[in-house]
Every structure is written in C-alpha cells, then in structure tokens.
TrEMBL record:
SUPFAM superfamilies: Protein kinase-like (PK-like). It comes from the Eukaryota. This is ethanolamine kinase. InterPro entries: Kinase-like_dom_sf.
Length: 413
C-alpha cells in the first residue's frame, strides 16, 4: 500500500481554508496587515494579552508584496531565543499585485500550495484573504543571483527539484493541438504550461495596429511550437524520457530559493549548505522537465539577463546529474539510484532544445505586466530582451547560427 499523501485537492478542501473577508492595502500597510493577522491569531493582539506585531518587508519579487509578520518575542530573553521564537511565530503575508489574476489562476495556486504542503514541500497555508494569502514562515534567507552558481547551493537546488518532480503527482495530458487550443466546444483542457501560455497570449492588448500585429505573430509562433511538439519540429517531439509531464515550479529564480539556517550561522561557508526550500507557487503547473531546467538555468542571469552568468555545458551537466539521481530516488522510493551517462546526455539534449522557450514564456508575461503593473520595473524592455532569446534560439535551428552572447555562452564547455 502506498504511504504517499493523497494527491486529491478538491474544491471542498480549498473551501475549508479560512477565508478572511479583508484586504491588504499598500497605502495602509501596517494597519491592514495587523487586522489580517489579528483576525487569524486574535491572541497576539495587545488588547487580548498578546505582544503585538512587527513587520519586515521583502523586496525580492517584482509582482507581489511580501511581509514577514512577527509576533513580538517576550522581553529579557537571549538573542538566540528571540530568533527561535520569531521564526516559530511568524507568518508571511503575500498580497497580489494589481490585476495579476489575468496571469495567475488563484484557485489553482491554492490547490498547488495545499498539495505541496501534504508532501512537506511547502509551508502550511493558513488562510486566504481578499487579495492574498497567509502562510507559515520558512526560516532562512533568500538566495542571491550570484549564489545560484555556488556548487553547494546548485547541488541543493538540483536535489530539491528532483524531489519535487519525483514525488508530486500531475496530469500527463499533452498540450492541446493548435486546432483545439481556442475551441470552446472541445471543453476545458487540463492545465499545463502550454494552456497557461495560450491564456497569456489571449490577454495581450491589441488596441493598436502594432499591438494587434504583435499578438498575431506571437499566436502564430505558439501554434508552431505546439506543432513542433506533435510532429518533431526543432527536435521537440517526445521530450520526456518516458516520464511524462512533471509538476513544475516554473519560476525557479534566486528569490524563490530559501537557504535555511546552517550550523554555525547563516554567514558560514556555503559548503555546509545541504538543502534549500522553494517558495511562491503561483506559476506552478505541469510542464516538461526540460522546460523547468532550462528556465532555472536562464534565471542564473537574474532580471538583468546577464548572460555571462549562465551555466556552461559542464556546469549544466553536473546539475542535471544531481537532479536525475534525486528524481529517480524519490520517484522509486529506493535508497540508491544509478544514473547512466546516456540518461544525462538525453536530458542535456532536451534542455538544449528547450532553452529558448523560457524567453518566449516570460516575454509574453512581461508584455501583459507592462500594461497592468504599478511596480517600478521596465517590463516592456524586459519583454523585448526575453523574446529576443526565443528568436535567437529559433535561428540556431533554422540557420545553425550562434550569433548572440546568450547562445555563445550556452555553447561553452
């Protein structure tokens, strides 16, 4: 009999989650956050004998507001005891950016978070509120872009990612064909990376002739990609190693990697890093594992898209070797896994073929953010940079040219 947690997350399970009928306000941050926390934990309020709250604002994301809400520790205790209490009695408040529901299915996000919690891959989800979520704090610090290349941290990320893909259940339904992708009569397809991308393309503004032409061009490229998967164009057919789709994080940038406290303190050598945690699951969806890996590697360049930081071929091979070992261990439940050079070669080749898809995916995303976001970030320029990655990738297959800094970096040993 299987000992794995149930993989069924029903609407009733989501409905059982406390739903606080209040909103977080950026303009009235501490007051609105306090109201949310005291609704969930009334005993923390000073008028109920609690010690009150303090807040730490995180700024690593570019779409959401993230606050660490700390139940003040009692006075007269040691600094180590303060840290222990703060870590144990803190809640993360994540408030959604304006109009991000266009990009993100919040019901599915809740379901994904609940599922991950059942497999001990996410902190406990405590409550929903009108424009966000409350969940347990994960002790540790956010990984920096530079640290993604640190061998110890890279191994830990690969190991955790292999666990995600190895244990989490997901649909293996393939992406829709171009003919059915927009057909209402065919019914709702299973959600995958590809159905999400189609939804985003449909949401791109087309008010001007220029916007309309761009949207039509991106739709055409999307359909070519689906045809390529069906028919083998660009070598994309059947790229799953017999695994099928995996439940991907799909946004594995440095800011979503948490390095837990290490023995000897957080400032110790990275060599002691044995594990990491992943946070923020709003983009989590079934996808090809080659996309997940290619997307993570692209995030080594950060929001600045510094291609000189991307992992070279030998570094990618080491990461994939560690990932496959972890994946096979967690998928089979065995105590050891032997990975062949052929398995590594196959997945390396798959990632090579998918390396342009993240640029297309996040380029489309950024085009929408450019019209809805109030955050001080140049999404329009970011969209152009990411989409250029896709066109350069396509060029390498159609003309066998390696003409951009990104493609040159990818080809290095």
């Amino acid at each position: 009999m299987s000992t794995k947690p149930s993989s069924i997350i029903t609407a009733s399970k989501i409905d059982e989650l406390p739903n606080i009928p209040l909103s977080y306000s950026v303009a009235n941050s501490q007051t609105s956050a306090s109201q949310l926390i005291y609704t969930l934990f009334p005993e923390w309020a000073p008028e109920r004998g609690g010690r009150g709250l303090k807040f730490v604002r995180f700024t690593d994301g570019i779409t959401n507001t993230l606050l660490k809400c700390i139940h003040n520790p009692p006075q007269g205790i040691s600094s180590s005891e303060v840290r222990r209490i703060e870590d144990g009695e803190s809640v993360l408040l994540r408030a959604y950016g304006r109009d991000t529901g266009i990009l993100i299915d919040r019901e599915r996000e809740c379901a994904s978070h609940l599922l991950l919690s059942r497999f001990n891959l996410a902190p406990e989800l405590l409550a929903r509120f009108a424009n966000g979520l409350l969940y347990r704090y994960v002790p540790g610090r956010v990984c920096s872009v530079q640290e993604l290349a640190d061998p110890a941290i890279s191994r830990a990320v690969a190991t955790r990612l292999g666990e995600w893909h190895g244990v989490l259940p997901t649909s293996t339904t393939p992406p829709p064909s171009p003919a059915s992708s927009s057909s209402a009569s065919s019914g709702e397809p299973d959600v995958t990376l590809w159905t999400v991308l189609q939804k985003w393309i449909s949401a791109i503004p087309s008010d001007t002739d220029e916007e309309k032409a761009r949207k039509e061009s991106l739709q055409e490229e999307y359909e070519k990609l689906l045809t390529s998967i069906d028919e083998g164009g660009y070598g994309l057919k059947g790229l799953d190693g017999g695994v099928g789709l995996v439940m991907g994080h799909c946004d594995l940038l440095s800011g979503n990697v948490i390095i837990p406290p290490q023995e000897g303190g957080l400032s110790g050598s990275h060599d002691v890093v044995r594990e990491v945690h992943f946070i923020d699951y709003e983009y989590s969806t079934p996808c090809e594992r080659a996309f997940e890996l290619a997307n993570h590697f692209s995030e080594w360049g950060g929001f600045e898209c510094d291609y000189s930081r991307l992992p070279t071929r030998s570094v990618r091979r080491e990461f994939i070797s560690t990932y496959l070992s972890s994946f096979e261990l967690h998928r089979s439940g065995a105590t050891a896994a032997t990975i062949s050079a052929g398995q590594i070669d196959d997945l390396m080749n798959e990632v090579e073929l998918f390396r342009g898809i993240p640029g297309f995916y996040w380029g489309v995303w950024a085009l929408i953010q450019a019209t809805i976001s109030q955050i001080d970030f140049d999404y329009a320029s970011y969209a152009n940079v990411r989409l250029a990655e896709y066109w350069a990738w396509k060029e390498t297959f159609e003309e066998r040219a390696v003409s951009t800094p990104r493609e040159q970096r990818w080809s290095q040993e």
